[in-house]
């Protein structure tokens, strides 16, 4: 009798355990598995939701592989926690900026802004300003420099006085919206471009790099339909942003098949776009993160605008190249940028970004005069053609870096064409050097 009761007791205990497992343990495990599956699905969705739109050859062939190869490991190690922290950082910054009183008036309506502080950049800027005045451009001009560059900048005061309405401005001036001094033990301050635009006394700004040379008076740009409608104009670069780049998740924007920005020239109405400018400054200030995603300051403007869904006009005409033949191969050392849709025959800006890194002797003609621009190389079907294949290469047996379209081994010349620089822009380089313009280095 005792054994029978013991058996029944064990049976009941086992039955209770089975019921407990069936009622509590199995559903809990399913719930956990579903939760894990949801997390995994969420991670996959976060990975792809912002990047699916630009997967494909049209984007991939125009990715700057040097930038990607140098930063891919950094992109891959960014965790969801890190990305969320960076998201909070820029969103919190924007929220605080919106709470501050924004400027309602400016001392002058329109003007040109440069950043130049050392002897070379100041000489290039002065040469460009002389050319602008030769074009009868009367826009007021500011040249911004860092505090430690004030002594060098002051040596150019007399030259600038003769050019009319040109001011040297110090980025460390007290009371500026974004004053900059040498802080955080940094040798170089990376947020100078956005800061100069923000701090300028102009509402409508045309920003130019010190090595960017207009080919005619650019004042008309302020009156174009595109600028009046959008309040900002950006120009294209040779490259597109890789789909795997974490910038899309960090800013919560779609990856789209479009060109990156070349910021040697920027137009912006600060009254309409004050907050996007602040975000661009923020991204330049925290360059340790954003420059590894955006390849320097150039795209911080376009991506700040996109993050805040602010309007801008992107020039549709593809960037061209200005240069010469070296060792039988085209060497492009200047980026040629164009105006709006109805004016694409002549470049408006000659951004000589590589020219200054090439020895002056390379450009000298038989009379020892500099002639750095012999040819213009452009793509046909300047807007409808989505195929650009730029490459950076080093001229054989030299340290000279050049740009070219397509592969030198498999170049399809039917996709591009070459023009005489002097036929397209007669007297441009004669006037530029006559007025003190700077070409290659000594």
TrEMBL record:
Main location: Golgi
GO molecular function: alpha-1,2-mannosyltransferase activity
Membrane topology: Single-pass type II membrane protein
Keyword presence, Transmembrane helix: yes
TM stretches of this protein: 7-25
BP terms from Gene Ontology: mannan biosynthetic process
Classification via InterPro entries: Alpha_mannosyltransferase (IPR022751), Nucleotide-diphossugar_trans (IPR029044)
Keywords: Golgi apparatus, Membrane, Signal-anchor, Transferase, Transmembrane, Transmembrane helix
Subcellular location: Golgi apparatus membrane
GO CC entries: Golgi membrane
Protein family according to the UniProt entry: Belongs to the MNN1/MNT family.
Name of protein: Uncharacterized protein
Provenance organism: Mucor plumbeus
Top-level taxonomy: Eukaryota, Fungi, Fungi incertae sedis, Mucoromycota, Mucoromycotina
């Amino acid at each position: 009798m005792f054994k029978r009761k013991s058996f029944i007791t064990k049976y009941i205990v086992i039955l209770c355990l089975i019921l407990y497992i069936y009622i509590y343990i199995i559903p809990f495990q399913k719930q956990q598995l579903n939760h894990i599956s949801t997390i995994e699905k969420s991670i996959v969705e976060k990975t792809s939701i912002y990047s699916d739109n630009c997967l494909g050859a049209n984007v991939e062939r125009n990715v700057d592989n040097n930038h990607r190869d140098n930063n891919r490991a950094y992109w891959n190690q960014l965790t969801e926690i890190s990305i969320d922290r960076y998201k909070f950082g820029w969103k919190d910054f924007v929220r605080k900026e919106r709470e501050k009183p924004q400027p309602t008036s400016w001392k002058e309506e329109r003007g040109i802004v440069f950043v130049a502080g050392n002897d070379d950049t100041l000489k290039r800027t002065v040469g460009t300003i002389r050319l602008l005045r030769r074009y009868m451009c009367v826009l007021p001009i500011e040249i911004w420099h860092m505090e430690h560059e004030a002594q060098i900048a002051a040596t150019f005061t007399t030259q600038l006085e003769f050019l009319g309405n040109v001011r040297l401005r110090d980025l460390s001036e007290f009371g500026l919206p974004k004053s900059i001094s040498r802080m955080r033990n940094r040798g170089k301050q990376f947020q100078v471009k956005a800061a100069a635009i923000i701090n300028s006394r102009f509402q409508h700004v045309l920003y130019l790099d010190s090595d960017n040379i207009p080919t005619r008076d650019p004042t008309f740009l302020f009156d174009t339909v595109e600028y009046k409608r959008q309040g900002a104009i950006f120009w294209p670069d040779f490259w597109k942003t890789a789909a795997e780049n974490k910038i899309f998740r960090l800013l919560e924007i779609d990856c789209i098949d479009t060109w990156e920005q070349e910021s040697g020239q920027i137009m912006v109405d600060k009254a309409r776009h004050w907050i996007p400018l602040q975000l661009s400054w923020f991204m330049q200030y925290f360059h340790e993160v954003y420059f590894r995603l955006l390849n320097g300051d150039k795209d911080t403007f376009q991506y700040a605008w996109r993050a805040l869904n602010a309007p801008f006009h992107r020039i549709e005409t593809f960037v061209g190249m200005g240069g010469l033949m070296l060792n039988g191969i085209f060497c492009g050392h200047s980026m040629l940028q164009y105006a709006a849709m109805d004016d694409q025959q002549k470049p408006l800006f000659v951004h000589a970004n590589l020219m200054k890194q090439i020895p002056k002797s390379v450009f000298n003609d038989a009379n020892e005069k500099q002639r750095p621009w012999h040819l213009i190389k452009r793509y046909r079907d300047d807007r409808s053609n989505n195929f650009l294949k730029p490459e950076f290469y080093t001229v054989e047996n030299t340290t000279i870096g050049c740009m070219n379209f397509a592969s030198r081994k498999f170049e399809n010349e039917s996709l591009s064409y070459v023009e005489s620089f002097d036929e397209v822009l007669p007297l441009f380089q004669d006037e530029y050097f006559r007025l003190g313009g700077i070409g290659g280095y000594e």
